Every structure is written in structure tokens, then in C-alpha cells.
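agent> fetching stored inputs for the cytidine-5'-triphosphate docking request
agent> found them:
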Amino acid sequence: MLSGKKIVIGITGSIAAYKIPLLVRLLKKEGAQVQILMTPAAHDFVTPLTLSTLSERPVLSSFFREEDGNWFSHVDLGLWADLLLVAPLSANTLAKMATGIADNLLLTTVLSARCPVYFAPAMDLDMYKHPATKHNIRTLQSFGYHFIEPDAGELASGLSGPGRMKEPEELFRFIKMQLLPEGPFAGKKVLVSAGPTFEPIDPVRYIGNHSTGRMGIEIALALARKGAQVELVLGPSSIEVNHPGIRLSKVTTADEMYNQCTRIFPDCQLAVMAAAVADFAPVKPAEQKIKKKDGLASIELKPTPDILAALGKVKTAAQFLVGFALETENEEANSRQKLESKNLDLIVLNSLKDKGAGFGHPTNKVSVLSRLGQRVDFPLKSKKEVAEDILTLIAKNLSTLS
Ligand code: CTP
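agent> prediction call returned; pasting C-alpha cells
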């Protein structure tokens, strides 16, 4: 039940506004207090009367109260809310928020909010795909706001593609998970590393590996679906990650990944290090492109910092650390050795011997070894299913944490 929970819903000028009364109804049925704010354009798509009837509160749109002309405090509203959702979020309001414009009550309330703020965009696919919109989304994400990605499907324009606001039932489930987290990962702060690292040789060349980042990203997404607050530190990857429960830090080199991970880890209860970190980096990357005619007999390399081992060193009894091992021989013995030497609680073993497993495949086949000596082997599965299996084992082993 959501009784005692206070939710502000900001509605902007988009056709999907007609779905918000259903969301209000679902939240009210669970006992939440719901305050509706509307931008002037939203009035063209849904009536304030419907929303005030369902929310049992007057709908707010203007800075001034009509009855007495008094100023309405957006700061109070921003402090009152346990959660603020702007749904549907139009391209126009998105752009205004990205630049800090505050010319209506909804915008000033978002600027004053201290609670978690979520945005559920709804717009035509070309507007959604436009570089200006993408830029504005990235800007707002960097401020700590969370996006509830729209679905792809038929749009009001008759076109078909991404831009449909998530259905009210899904928004309701999402809000509930944020306000009443359940399960072993809910509300936990978790660090996930994923992807390769690229170590520059010169401004155009680098030492890298075949990792796509898919396995670690699936783990981050599975954790976020279970209500964790995920900090994903991702090396160069072409996969787009967009989940309101994931804060993304993009890095390129092992040094950058080390800096991010060691900064974030002390606040986390769990870390899953799935990145394929380069073990060696050029000692001194050339400042200019190395010309063919000058030749290059060798590249002097230095070891990169072992991020997982560094986290293992500072790990407290309240933290749980999971590593990966990629082995081509003596798999179990080598993995157990890594588990011990890096002070891990679990290690996920990938064998390159298995067909369909490892880099570049949509599937993976893993075995998980625990500090207590257990081994669980899983069959070949999609990386999404493998992520779920790994989380199930982490959840079981979390209870062994002292
Ligand atoms: N790892 C890390 N930092 C590094 C190298 C590896 O954090 N510089 C992490 C990986 O994210 C993975 C684990 O260590 O979780 C094991 O990586 P792997 O490459 O299998 O093992 P290494 O420790 O590098 O040992 P080796 O290459 O000798 O097998």
C-alpha cells in the first residue's frame, strides 16, 4: 500500500496526457496522495476537472491562486513530494528543463524538488530521435534525473517507432517499486563495471579487446528492474543504456575505470565487476599519430591497475564483491585462485571453450564459484537469462554475509 506516500505528477502538452487519469486512479486506490500540476499546453489534452476529481485535490497550473490571488509556493510542493513524475514529458518541456527555464509552475517545482524526479517522455519518433532531444536527455541525466524510456509502437501521428509513453499500469508498477522497494536488491546501491577498456597508443590507435559490454549491461538492467540504484561504469560500448535505476559513467581507459570504481565503491553494498579491463597499457602514448614511415619496432607496456583487486582490499564486512574470470585452461583452479587473491565473495567463470559463450555472442555459459567452496554450472542461455541466474545466486549468498 502507498498510504502516506506523496506523489506529484506533472503533465505537459502531449496526447499521452489522456492516460494519466488512469495512473492517478491506480495510485489513489493504493492510498497515495497525488498532486497534479499541469503546464498550460496540457489543458488541451486532458481536463483539470477529471484529474481533480480522481486525485481529490485541486489541479495546479498557475503561480497564483485564483480565489485570493496569493502566490502559490512551488518550493513547498517540491519539499512535500516523496516522488515527482513528469508524464507525459513533451519535447518542449524537456528542452526548457535542460536549460533551467522556469516559466511555469511545473518547471519551478522540478527545479525546487529534493525528492527523486522521473521523466516519462512522449513524442513523435522523429522528435524523440532528434539530436537536440537526445542532447537534452543526456544533460538532464547528468543532473541526476531519471528517464522512463518510451516504448516503440504506433504513434498519434500515424508513424510507428519509439516515442510512446509507458502505459499507466507500468508507470504505476515503477512508482511502487521506487517507493516501496521489495526483495534483496531493492534500494541497494550497486556498482557494475562493464565493457572493454581502450588504452591509447597514439591519438588514433589503441589496445582493446572484443568485449561488447552486453553481459555487464544485462546485469545492471536486471539489478535496476529489481529496484537497485545501479552505478554502471561502462567502457567503450555501442549499446545504449537507458533505465531510470541506472546512473551511467562512460570511461575509456583502465585508469579512468579505476578512478570511477574506487570513488563509487565505498557507498555500495554490492559490486559486480564484469568489465574486460585491459591488463597492459602503453607507457607513453604518442601525442601525434605515429607515421608509418617512422616505423614502430615495439610498444613499451605497463600493467594497468587491477580494479577488482583494489576493491577487494578495501571491502568491508557489509559489502559483497563479485568478479568474473575468463579462462582458457585450468578454469576452476585459476578462478578459485582469483576468488581468494582478490578477496571476492563470488566469481563467475566464463570459458572460451564453450561454443556460443563469451565475447560478441548474445548467449553465455557460466559457472559460479562461491567463497564457501560451492560451484553451480548453468547451461547456455541468453545473456539476459544469465544475468538473472547470477543475481539469484548473489541473493542466496548475500545471506552468508556477516
Ligand atoms: N579486472 C579488473 N581490473 C583489471 C583486470 C581485471 O577489475 N585490471 C577484473 C575483471 O573485471 C574481472 C576479473 O578482474 O572481474 C578477472 O579478470 P581476468 O582478465 O579474467 O583476470 P586477471 O585478474 O586479469 O588475470 P589473468 O588475465 O592473468 O587471467
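agent> quick read of the result: The radius of gyration is 24 Å.
agent> awaiting further instructions
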